[in-house]
Specification:
The protein is of the alpha/beta class. It has 2 domains: 281 residues, ABC transporter transmembrane region fold; 229 residues, Rossmann fold (3-Layer(aba) Sandwich), CATH 3.40.50. It is built from 18 helices and 10 strands. The strands form 2 sheets. Strands 6-7-8-3-9-10 form a 6-stranded mixed beta sheet, sandwiched between helices. Strands 2-1-4-5 form a 4-stranded antiparallel beta sheet, covered by helices on one side. Helix 5 runs antiparallel to helix 6. It is elongated, with a radius of gyration of 35 Å. The two termini are 63 Å apart.
């Protein structure tokens, strides 16, 4: 844990060391003048009111006014710097966490729910950085606030200082106990909160399903269960926090009682001046406020450390690392050699062998046979258990991920569209493409016609996930994006599923144009879509032993197999 905090500070806090120093310095200035006020009060009582030295009254008045003015200015500057530091760190850390997710292994990302990741990037980041923007500076300032009044009290009266301070320090003992309780209960509360984020993400994306099946009450009940779990977990934290704060308040009450008991007796006996007693009352408040603050800071730290742990897990995620070699494409020949792969210990591919060459190649099989997995393995989205995949004899494990993927275009069965203009969604295929190239790609897939019929044409917003477009229109945009990328290897994963006849015809026409100079691998359920002149067809049929291994068949026999 120490190393994680150290690394975090070196990466994110060190660039703002000067801001942190200014924040602490002005907080110290503000605190320093607060220590002067009780001494001015002592002089006012002992020297002016009792001693009759009225010539000091003006100086004391000016000193008191000046103290509050300077303290006010220092408080403003320190508060402003803290707010600026807080926002700057939140900006830096949130962007870095998001970047870590972008480059993390997809297998690790998919182990967590989307809502959970959202809560880590935003809510947990806010909590975690407060350890450095609030707790750390306050700890330093509180240390100064303890040492300074304690030193002044020792100078004023050693005996009374020891009587007042030592018994109260016993109240520091519960800090460790409640700190652990707060950390544990807050960790559970954060998990419940992340579950709510995940539930909302899933539920709000399935509103049409909920409406059609009349699941409104069921959905409401599920959300109520999530909220009740969060309420119970948060109440456990609240109970422990309340107990901790109540004990903290006693830490201030005990020394005041001891001061009145012993200090009051000393004033009556004449061994302590009234001004010194008044100053002691002020310094006890100044001394034990930061001591109480230590207890609060400890509780606050233990409450926020689970949030830090959650964002640290993201930074520690295994990266999507590849090799160092460049991919050199000559024939774009793809070879799977004895490939084995499982999802969660469930075998998907067992000894898969295949060769895909320039032109059309098909992979056909039942649901769960591993068709889409073949394409994802080729993109190196998952790690092989055994075997290897080669492109023109080059093992993809030895290639840089960026170089591998820029030579592959994939179109998924459910095309991924961002909530933005059509123009931007096509441009994602090649961010350096010109407007003319983007329009040309749209024309190639016969998407230009329907785009120009829209009110805002290429600036039309597609909605979240492309919900404002039909299935066929979404696939055409995805295909235009792949054409713009102009990769030598093109993968189509059930792209004709759930689209209209016209869109299917358009896609097939584009595929037939590309087949002369690209290696195209098409995953489909439909044997009737196999074009004459295709290279190879790999099919998987479930047998009595539940073995779904793929086998290559002759193109002339493939339709007979499924007839």
């Amino acid at each position: 844990m120490y190393d994680s905090y150290k690394n975090f500070m070196m990466k994110f806090i060190r660039p703002y060391a000067s801001t942190m120093a200014i924040l602490i310095a002005f907080s110290f200035v503000s605190t320093l003048f607060a220590f002067v006020t009780p001494l001015l009060e002592k002089s006012l009582v002992d020297d002016v009111f009792i001693g009759g030295r009225t010539e000091l009254f003006g100086y004391i008045l000016l000193g008191t006014a000046g103290t509050y003015i300077i303290s006010s200015i220092s408080t403003y500057i320190s508060s402003y710097k803290k707010g600026k530091l807080d926002l700057a760190l939140f900006n830096d850390v949130a962007k870095d966490i998001f970047g870590s997710l972008q480059f993390a292994s997809i297998e690790k990302i998919q182990e967590k729910k989307v809502g959970d990741l959202q809560s880590r990037i935003l809510a947990n980041t806010r909590s975690a950085i407060s350890i450095f923007t609030f707790i750390l500076p306050e700890f330093i300032i509180s240390s100064i606030r303890v040492i300074t009044p304690f030193s002044i009290m020792l100078f004023l009266n050693l005996y009374l200082t020891l009587i007042v301070v030592i018994p109260a320090l016993l109240f520091l003992m519960p800090m460790a106990f409640f700190g652990k309780r707060l950390e544990d209960t807050q960790r559970v509360s954060l998990l419940r909160n992340a579950s709510i984020y995940s539930f909302l993400k899933e539920n709000l994306s399935m509103i049409p399903l909920i409406k059609v099946f009349g699941l409104e009450i069921w959905s409401q009940d599920k959300f109520s269960e999530q909220m009740n779990d969060y309420y119970d977990a948060s109440m456990d934290y609240t109970k422990n926090a309340s107990l901790s704060y109540s004990i903290d308040s006693l830490m201030y009450g005990v020394p005041m009682v001891l001061l009145v008991l012993f200090g009051g007796s000393m004033v009556v006996q004449g061994s302590l001046t009234i001004g010194t007693f008044a100053a002691f009352m002020s310094y006890v408040a100044l001394l034990f406020a930061p001591i109480t603050q230590f207890a609060s800071l400890w509780s606050y730290y233990k409450s926020n450390s689970p949030a830090f742990d959650r964002i640290h897990e993201i930074f520690q995620m295994e990266r999507d690392a590849g090799g160092e070699a460049d991919l050199i494409i000559k024939e774009a020949k793809v070879t799977f050699d004895d490939v084995w792969f499982s999802y969660d210990n469930r075998p998907i591919l067992q000894g898969f062998n295949a060769t895909f060459e320039k032109g059309l190649n098909y992979v056909i099989g039942d649901n769960g046979a591993g068709k889409s997995t073949i394409l994802k393995l080729l993109c190196s989205l998952y790690t092989l258990e055994k075997g290897n995949i080669k492109i023109d004899g080059q093992d993809i494990n030895n290639l840089r991920r960026s170089d591998l993927r820029k030579n592959i275009s994939i179109i998924f069965s459910d095309p991924y569209l961002f909530d933005g203009p059509i123009y931007e969604n096509i441009r994602l295929g090649n961010l350096s493409a010109s407007k003319e190239e983007i329009i040309h790609a749209a024309k190639q897939v016969r998407a230009h016609e329907f785009i120009m019929a829209l009110p805002n044409r290429y600036d039309t917003l597609v909605g979240e996930g492309g919900l404002k477009l039909s299935s066929g229109e979404r696939q055409k945009i995805a295909l235009a994006r792949a054409i713009l990328r102009d990769s030598p290897i093109v993968l189509l994963d059930e792209v004709t599923k759930s689209i209209d006849v016209d869109s299917r015809r358009s896609i097939n026409e584009v595929v037939n144009v590309m087949k002369d100079d690209k290696t195209i691998i098409i995953v489909t359920h439909y044997i009737n879509e196999i074009e004459v002149g295709s290279n190879k067809v790999y099919v998987s049929q479930k047998n009595q032993h539940d073995d779904r291994r793929f086998r290559s068949v002759d193109i002339s026999m493939s339709k007979a197999i499924f007839s």
